[in-house]
C-alpha cells in the first residue's frame, strides 16, 4: 500500500459499512448460502462483524499491518496482515471472497493482482470499487466497472448484476456499495445459484455500466474535474467531521 490509513479513517467508514453490510448480507445470504467468507481490504472488520452476526463464523480478513489490532471488530485470529498489492495466499478456499471499495486505493498496476487473489480464494466473489469521479481519501485507481469486469473475465468469472437493482433505492446502504457492487462467479460457482441471480447474468461482450441517481452522477461529474490532492483533502475533512460526530454519539 502507498498510504497508511489511520483510526480516524476507519471511524468514518465503519458506521456506514456496518449498516450497508446488514442490508446487503440479508439480501445475498439466502441466494448463496455461504458458511465461510474472506474479505480482502477488511479494515477493522466491519463487514466481517456483520457476517458473524448473520451466522457466518468462519471468516478471515486481510488488510495492511497499519490496522490497529486493539480496534478490530473481529477476533484477532481472524485477521491477517498483508500487502494487497502482492498476491495474498491463505492456503484455503472460501465459499465467498469479497473486496468492497478497496481497489481504488491500490495502484492500477496492482489491479490484476487483487483480482487474482480473490479468484484463487473462491468460486464466487463479491466486488466493488470506486468509479471515475467518485472521490475519496487517496483514491489513486478509480475505474469504470467494466475495467474490473474485464479482469475477472480473464480469470473465467462472469458478472451477475443482481445486487444493484435490488438496492438502488436503499437509503441505508452507502451509495458506493449500492451502485458499484457486482457478483462475479466462475463455472463451479454458478452451480446452485437461484434463478433471481442467474437472470441477472451480463452476457460476454456486454460492458457493465456505471450507475447512480441524478445527484450521484452530478457529484461524480464535478469531482472528476478537481485535482486529486483537493479531492483527498475534502474527503479527509468530511471524514474527520463524521468520525467526531460518531464518537460523540457513542460517548
From TrEMBL:
SUPFAM superfamilies: S-adenosyl-L-methionine-dependent methyltransferases. This is Uncharacterized protein. It comes from Pseudooceanicola lipolyticus. The lineage of its organism: Bacteria, Pseudomonadati, Pseudomonadota, Alphaproteobacteria, Rhodobacterales.
